Amino acid sequence: xxxxxxxxxxxxxxxxxxxxxxxxxxxxxxxxxxxxxxxxxxxxxxxxxxxxxxxxxxxxxxxxxxxxxxxxxxxxxxxxxxxxxxxxxxxxxxxxxxxxxxxxxxxxxxxxxxxxxxxxxxxxxxxxxxxxxxxxxxxxxxxxxxxxxxxxxxxxxxxxxxxxxxxxxxxxxxxxxxxxxxxxxxxxxxxxxxxxxxxxxxxxx
Length: 205
Description:
This protein is mainly alpha-helical. The protein is built from 7 helices and 4 strands.
């Protein structure tokens, strides 16, 4: 019986997988930037957090293109991609929203719903990818909006942060319902999450 080599899993990574890890690292960087904002109160950290999400998207696009260019893909790569996506386009946008001021009870419920929808969307894609690809290397369409569409939400939050519309000044104000806060702006996360788990078909370009 051959003894497993040290770091044998890493040795099995394809070039595209390293770009996928770049996606995850950018998402973690965004999370750390939000934490820095919550500690220091310096809004520049929110700007950094928002800026790292497009970086994650660039890595996400490149890993797919590199995999097709090199004609090397694997089930490991697909799972790795989904895990990176949930960090960068699910958890990180929700954390940015929290940092921007969506910290009421109802806000948190909506943000958890959004992340749960993102996880569910990616899991559904992974189990149906082979069927959707119809025997080719590329799926023909998405069921539900792809999780990287959360970039739109991040763009809105970046614009709000750039104008100082965070915390008590968050766009849309705050509603008090049964003694708990809801910032209406958080409802865009509810809409995004609902679209991700819908059955609408979106052609993949």
